[in-house]
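Notes from the 1:1 (GR / supervisor)

We went over the backlog. Supervisor wanted to see one worked example end to end before approving the batch request, so GR pasted a single chain during the call. The sequence is below; no edits were made to it. Supervisor asked that the structure be written out right there so they could see what the output format looks like.
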Amino acid sequence: MKVKRRTVWLLTLLSLAAVISVYYVFEPNRDVDLLTIFTDDTLQETTLTSVDDKEITTTTSESYLFDEMRMEKSNERSKIREQLTQKIASDQYTPEEKNEAFNEMNALIEQESSEAMLEMLIESLGYSDALVRVEDEKVAVTVLSDEISKQQANEIIFIVRSELEDISDVSVSVSSNYYN
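Structure output shown during the call:
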């Protein structure tokens, strides 16, 4: 018996819809009128029935300072990347110069990804935010915390040196600029 791909796809979709609908029908602790899901004017008639004040959390960044610094760095790098792209696309430069510009662009992309990876790794240690700046052979790490111990600073330095082997100088500083 030969089954067409379209038939298999349709049966898979229908079985998925059936499983999801059974899940929602038998889901405990729900205050949803299931008939309103199937009406055309659901959005106009939908009202919020209750809100628990204890569950409301803000999703703003704890430090606008880090966000501003990231944006400035991103803008600088975008300008550099644009200049390098123009250099690569231009006919005025030799192939060696274009290759050098391409290598610079790859190094810039690698630096950005290394900084982002280090920020995530440092945040996984329990810090609410971290800012990593790699410049030449130096790395400056700023964490958002009231204070850190020498052991915590050494943990951060170990992570940075394990991710970036050619780094000779790592500095860790603390910022407690909370803007809530």
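Supervisor's comment: Residues 95-123 form the longest helix (29 residues).
Batch request approved.
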